[in-house]
Write a structure and sequence with these properties.
single chain, alpha/beta, two-stranded antiparallel sheet, 38% helix, 17% strand
Length: 409
């Protein structure tokens, strides 16, 4: 089972030992950020710094001026990692250490873009904007994301890409100093708070046969019990959508599902198509995904058959217990016709401080393989402590087959 780890360029740039240390883990691939959102990251082994503050979403390479000239929506550049092309510098070092480099491209998660262009973002049923969440149904947003995908994915030296948040983003954000946990929101309520009512989405609901004001009213009514402190029983992915239908009613839920699924599928199709057009033959395109199509976020909801019809595979969130893994991997276990050697990568958090369990990596990976996973992703090699990395090294050694067999990923 091939294993790859996530990494930021600033984990490598300025650290002459980083690439060899990573290769020594027993991984074959690094998924290296080329377009990323704002973050504050620990760098526990870097000889020059311990904290990197990426103040805003940015590309980590020099964007093509001709591609973006005269456009309102365009990627920002960065100044927190040395050099004009941090991605390229890190990618060369990793490749020289024998590691295959793939790009890590974050799409519909960009607070800077939303702050500069408030008309382009998701607006909830109460009219509140989500600056971090560009509305993917808007033509100008989709055009921007598709072009960003093509440019940020196909960087010199990259053998493939992984597209994160290639779909709807919503309420969940982990914004700086978040204060949103005062009311416990179920999965259904998280969805309802993520539904967009910008002008484009409102017009879309109306065209599908239900006036947007009625859809909005239904969402507001469904959310009222949550503000009063109702705590519905937790539900699995299928149960979440059943709860949405029960709380909204079949007709509003159906309109939302049709509109939002259509917008997400269009973005996936166009983004992957643009990457393929820009890339050489054999370039692998994976989607960070969740099998529950209504879910929003970094692992954007996607019907398994639809996702594997356009991409070469998926990266799925598998941190948690056996039941959680089964719920995510199960729907992808039966490959749809034509999917061939699709990559189904189980993504495990291996940072103890972030809730990961590096010490059980071998057992967790074996369970994932029994559910149809054929690759591993480890989040995140740059953030992990020395102890966590030692556990990863031991786990991969126990797994044994890290020689590159199975589908390239």
């Amino acid at each position: 089972m091939r294993a790859g780890a996530f990494l930021y360029p600033w984990d490598v740039v300025g650290d002459p030992d980083a690439a060899a240390r990573l290769a020594g883990l027993g991984i074959q691939q690094v998924t290296l950020a080329s377009a990323y959102h704002s973050t504050r990251a620990l760098t526990p082994r870097h000889p020059r710094h311990r904290i990197v503050t990426a103040r805003h979403a940015a590309v980590l390479y020099p964007p093509d001026p001709a591609r973006w000239a005269g456009r309102a929506l365009r990627p920002a550049t960065q100044d927190w990692t040395a050099g004009p092309d941090p991605f390229g510098t890190a990618a060369r070092a990793l490749a020289n250490a024998g590691l295959e480099v793939h790009t890590w491209v974050v799409l519909a998660h960009n607070s800077r873009l939303g702050a500069a262009h408030p008309s382009a973002v998701v607006r909830n049923a109460y009219g509140d904007p989500y600056p971090w969440a560009p509305c993917i149904a808007r033509p100008e947003v989709r055009e921007y994301l598709v072009d960003l995908a093509a440019e940020a994915a196909v960087r010199p030296g990259a053998r493939g890409t992984e597209l994160e948040s290639c779909g709807w983003y919503g309420l969940a954000h982990l914004h700086a100093h978040d204060k949103t946990a005062g009311v416990v929101l179920s999965g259904a309520a998280q969805y309802l708070m993520s539904v967009c009512f910008c002008t484009v989405c409102a017009a879309g609901y109306t065209r599908l046969g239900l006036p947007a004001r009625e859809v909005r009213a239904a969402v507001v009514r469904a959310l009222e019990p949550h503000w009063a402190g109702a705590r519905p029983a937790p539900a699995d992915r299928a149960g979440e959508w059943a709860a949405v239908e029960e709380q909204l009613g079949a007709e509003p839920a159906g309109v939302l599902r049709t509109w939002r699924d259509g917008a997400a599928a269009a973005l996936r199709r166009q983004a992957v198509g643009a990457v393929r057009q820009a890339a050489a033959e054999g370039f692998r395109v994976l989607l960070h995904a969740d099998p529950a199509a209504h879910r929003c976020g970094a692992n954007a909801g996607a019907d398994p058959a639809g996702a594997l019809a356009v991409a070469d595979g998926v990266v799925l969130p598998c941190t948690g217990d056996a039941a959680a893994r089964a719920a995510v991997l199960g729907p992808f276990a039966a490959r749809p016709a034509g999917a061939g050697e699709a990559v189904v990568a189980a993504n495990f958090t291996v940072v103890s401080g972030l809730g990961g369990s590096p010490g059980t990596l071998a057992a967790d990976a074996a369970h994932a393989a029994s559910l149809g996973a054929n690759a591993l992703r480890l989040y995140h090699a740059g953030l992990a402590s020395d102890r966590d990395l030692a556990a990863v090294r031991d786990g991969l050694r126990e797994i044994g087959d890290t020689s590159g067999t199975g589908p390239a990923c």
